[in-house]
C-alpha cells in the first residue's frame, strides 16, 4: 500500500520513470505540436491572405472541422480505452496514425488556387481528414501520461518534458515558417506553404514514431497496469458526472483556449497592419516560444514548493496583466509589444505546465469518487474542449474581422485597427480573469491527490475482486 512521505505526498510504489522514457514522451509532443502550432498560427492566415478565402468562410471551415472533433474525440477516447494489444492501449495508435496524419497535414496546406467555392471545399475536406488523424494520435498520446505513472510529481516531470518539446516545436514554427515559405516558394507563398508543410510532415511523423518506440505502458501487476473489466458507457458517464475536479479543469481549458486562440489569430494581423512590422512576425513568435521553453522548468520546480494550483493562478494573473498592458501600451511600437508579449509568455508557460501536469490527477479523482478509471475518456474530453474552443474562437475571430471591416492585403480603417487591438488585449484579458477565478476554486492539489492514490490502493488491497468489478 502507498504511504505518505513527510511532505504529505504519496511514496512511490513503482520506480521513477527513466530519463529515456521522459525524453521519448516529450519528443512525441514535439511532433504533435509541429502540426498543432502550424495549424493554429497559420491556417487562418493561409486561407485568407494566401488562398483568398473570405474571413468568415475561413472561420467557418475551421469551426466546422472542430464540430467534427466533437464526435471523434470522445469516440476515440472510448475506443482507445477498450484497446488491448501486447504493446499497450495507447501506443498502437501512434504507430498506426502517424503517417496518415503527416500526409493529411501536407494536403491541408496544398489548397489549389481555384475558384473560391472549390478552394473552400478542398480546404474543408482536408481539414476534416487532418482533424480525424490528429485525434487518433493526440488523444492516445495525452492518455499515456496517466498510464505511465500514478505519481503526481512524476507527472509533473512528464509535463515539463512535454512542454519543453512542445515549445521547441513552437520555436521551429515561429522562426522558420513565414520566411521559409517565402524562400522555398521563391516569393510565392502558395507554393512556399505547401513546401513547408511537406517538410514539417516528415519531422512531425518521425517524432511521433520515436515516442511510440521509446515509451512504455505498465504491465499487469505493476501500478496502473491492473487488468480491469472494460467500463460500460453509462459507468464512464457516471464517472465524468461526479468528477468535479475534471469539470473545473475542463472549464479553465475551454475559456483559456478561447481567449488565447482569438489573440493568436489576431497578432499576425496586428503586427502587419497596426505596427507595419510584418517582417518581425518570426522574431515575435520566436521570443514568445523561447520564453515559454525557458520558463517551464522554473514553473515545474516551483510547483513542488507551492503547488500546481498556485502556479496556475500565477499564470492566469500574469496573462491578465500582460493583455491589459497591450491595450494601455502608450508606445505601441514593435519593441514594446514584443516585450509585453514575452512577459505574457511567462504566464502562458505556467498555464501550459499546470494544465498537463494536473489533468492526469483527475483520472484518480474520478476513480476515487466512482470506482471507474478511464484515462482516454478524460483526455478525449479535454481534446474536445481544446478543439471546441479553437473552432469556436476561430469562427468568432473571423466574424470579428469582418465586423470590424478588415480587408486582406489593403490599408485598414481606424475601426479595423482598433478591432485588432481589442482582439489581442481586451478579449484575452477577460478570459484570463475568468480562468483565475476558476483556478482559485480548484481543490485537487498534490497532497489531496496523494491521499486519493493511497485510498485507492487501500481499497484494492482490502477487496481486489470488488474493486475490479466496480471498475
From TrEMBL:
Q: Which family does it belong to?
A: Belongs to the sodium:galactoside symporter (TC 2.A.2) family.
Q: Which InterPro entries match?
A: MFS_2 (IPR039672), MFS_trans_sf (IPR036259), Na/Gal_symport (IPR001927)
List where the protein spans the membrane.
92-111, 117-137, 158-177, 197-215, 244-268, 280-299, 311-329, 335-356, 377-400, 420-442
Q: Which GO terms describe its cellular component?
A: plasma membrane
Write down what this protein is called: Major facilitator superfamily (MFS) profile domain-containing protein
Q: Which CDD domains match?
A: MFS_MelB_like (cd17332)
Q: Which SUPFAM superfamilies match?
A: MFS general substrate transporter
Q: Name one GO biological process term.
A: carbohydrate transport
Q: Name one GO molecular function term.
A: symporter activity
Q: Which terms are listed as keywords in the entry?
A: Membrane, Transmembrane, Transmembrane helix
Amino acid at each position: 500500500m502507498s504511504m505518505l512521505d513527510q511532505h504529505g505526498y504519496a511514496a512511490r510504489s513503482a520506480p521513477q520513470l527513466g530519463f529515456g522514457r521522459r525524453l521519448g514522451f516529450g519528443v512525441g509532443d514535439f511532433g504533435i505540436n509541429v502540426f498543432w502550432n502550424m495549424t493554429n498560427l497559420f491556417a487562418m492566415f493561409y486561407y485568407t491572405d494566401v488562398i483568398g478565402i473570405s474571413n468568415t468562410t475561413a472561420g467557418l471551415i475551421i469551426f466546422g472541422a472542430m464540430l467534427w472533433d466533437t464526435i471523434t474525440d470522445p469516440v476515440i477516447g472510448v475506443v482507445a480505452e477498450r484497446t488491448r494489444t501486447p504493446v499497450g492501449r495507447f501506443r498502437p495508435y501512434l504507430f498506426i496514425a502517424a503517417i496518415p496524419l503527416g500526409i493529411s497535414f501536407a494536403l491541408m496546406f496544398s489548397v489549389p488556387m481555384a475558384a473560391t467555392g472549390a478552394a473552400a471545399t478542398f480546404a474543408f475536406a482536408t481539414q476534416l481528414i487532418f482533424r480525424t488523424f490528429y485525434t487518433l494520435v493526440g488523444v492516445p498520446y495525452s492518455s499515456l501520461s496517466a498510464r505511465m505513472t500514478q505519481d503526481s510529481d512524476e507527472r509533473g516531470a512528464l509535463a515539463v518534458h512535454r512542454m519543453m518539446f512542445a515549445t521547441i516545436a513552437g520555436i521551429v514554427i515561429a522562426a522558420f515558417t513565414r520566411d521559409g515559405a517565402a524562400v522555398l516558394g521563391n516569393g510565392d507563398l502558395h507554393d512556399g506553404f505547401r513546401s513547408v508543410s511537406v517538410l514539417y510532415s516528415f519531422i512531425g511523423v518521425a517524432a511521433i514514431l520515436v515516442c511510440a518506440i521509446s515509451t512504455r505502458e505498465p504491465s499487469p501487476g505493476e501500478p496502473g497496469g491492473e487488468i480491469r473489466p472494460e467500463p460500460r458507457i453509462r459507468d464512464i458517464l457516471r464517472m465524468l458526472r461526479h468528477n468535479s475536479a475534471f469539470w473545473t479543469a475542463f472549464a479553465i481549458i475551454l475559456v483559456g483556449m478561447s481567449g488565447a486562440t482569438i489573440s493568436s489569430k489576431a497578432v499576425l494581423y496586428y503586427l502587419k497592419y497596426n505596427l507595419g512590422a510584418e517582417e518581425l512576425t518570426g522574431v515575435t513568435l520566436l521570443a514568445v516560444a523561447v520564453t515559454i521553453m525557458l520558463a517551464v522548468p522554473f514553473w515545474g520546480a516551483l510547483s513542488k514548493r507551492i503547488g500546481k494550483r498556485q502556479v496556475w493562478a500565477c499564470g492566469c494573473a500574469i496573462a491578465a496583466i500582460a493583455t491589459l498592458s497591450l491595450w494601455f501600451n502608450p508606445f505601441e511600437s514593435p519593441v514594446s509589444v514584443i516585450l509585453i508579449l514575452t512577459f505574457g509568455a511567462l504566464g502562458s508557460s505556467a498555464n501550459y505546465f499546470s494544465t498537463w501536469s494536473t489533468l492526469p490527477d483527475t483520472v484518480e479523482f474520478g476513480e476515487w469518487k466512482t470506482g471507474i478509471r478511464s484515462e482516454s475518456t478524460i483526455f478525449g474530453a479535454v481534446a474536445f474542449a481544446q478543439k471546441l474552443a479553437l473552432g469556436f474562437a476561430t469562427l468568432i475571430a473571423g466574424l470579428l474581422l469582418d465586423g470590424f471591416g478588415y480587408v486582406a492585403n489593403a490599408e485598414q480603417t481606424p475601426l479595423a485597427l482598433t478591432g485588432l487591438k481589442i482582439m489581442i488585449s481586451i478579449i484575452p484579458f477577460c478570459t484570463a480573469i475568468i480562468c483565475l477565478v476558476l483556478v482559485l476554486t480548484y481543490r485537487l492539489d498534490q497532497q489531496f491527490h496523494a491521499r486519493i492514490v493511497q485510498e485507492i490502493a487501500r481499497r484494492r488491497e482490502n477487496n481486489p475482486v470488488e474493486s475490479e468489478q466496480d471498475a
